[in-house]
Amino acid sequence: MKRLFVLFSLLACWLTLAIGCKKNDSEPQTELRFVVPSNFPEAVYKFENNTVGQAGFELGRHLFFEDALSIDNSVNCGTCHQQFAAFANLDHSVSHGVNDCFGTRNAPPLFNLAWQKEFMWDGGVNHIEVSGLNALVDPCEMANSLDNITSTLSKKQPYPDLFKKAFGTPEINSQRIFRALTQFTAMMVSATSKYDKHIRKEVGGEFTAAEQAGYILFRDKCSKCHSEPLFTDLSYRSNGLDQDPKENGREKISRQASDQGKFKVPSLRNVELTRPYMHDGRFFSLEDVLEHYNSGVMDHINLDPELKKDPVRGIALSKTEQQQIISFLKTLTDNEFIRDKRFAEL
User: Fold this and answer.
1) Structural domains counted in the chain
2) Disulfide-capable partner of 297 in 40, 62, 116, 314 (CB 3.0 to 4.6 Å)?
3) What burial letters (b/e) apply to 290-301, b meaning 16+ CB within 10 Å?
4) Distance between CA 314 and CA 308 in Å, rounded?
5) Is residue 27 situated within a structural domain?
6) Angle at 150 between CA 149 and CA 152, to 5 degrees
7) What digits encode the pLDDT tens for the residues 206-250?
């Protein structure tokens, strides 16, 4: 019996090597690599000097959900960037950090970051590898310092081992932290929505009559700012939220008066999941957003030309048209992305 058991064990090992069976559920079933979807342009971030690998990706995943990145171990990146909300902060108007502190801006969703040159609502960060710096050090978010973070992680298991696997040595420094986080977040590609399947003529991409009508309306009335396939042109615009904005927006970075009150045009991918909306999270439904464009646009000095080209400011939309556009916007929901176990909390 013992010989028979050994024989079966050897046979199982041989089969594992021969057909590449996975050893356990935690191992990847496919090669880990960054793939540009066929209906997307080339990505901006090329992973130069930061080639994505399984060890680096898993380290980034650990760091993303690590409470020790905050000064009091109370929050992590996933606190404000929840996978079920396409890594936005569902139902929170603004970010909520340490010491029960509330910020001034809505936490944006995280996906398709490799196609962006600038980050945050005002574009205050111009490289993906340091896009998380503000959250780490902001006194109303994680309120920490890079020196304290590296010191803490150096003494906390399993990080020395994870850094060694990812980078060859157990040294922990800020560059390695940011590069590991980037390997994780840059892999967050959202491109398997019903819309994507429709564009690529794949099974499951057939639009209903309402969705098709909404798509036609969207391309006519919304696509100048929310251009396909990213559903943002990545520009900074004033959409008339206030006549006298409380925040300067892009002007804080550019120091140009012409940028006062302008914020980055957000992607509308997964917009069904990423409420509340706008940089300050003032609208809690898509109906509220579309009604703003229909009747609530304020005459700001830097109001975008697209919103003042008609006799009445904004974008005229009947209730029927609004519902048709919402029907289309829901085709941008990527259920495969928000359920992808690779990005789930450990």
Assistant:
1) 2
2) 314
3) bbbbbebbbebe
4) 6
5) no
6) 65
7) 999 999 999 999 999 999 999 999 999 999 999 999 998 889 999
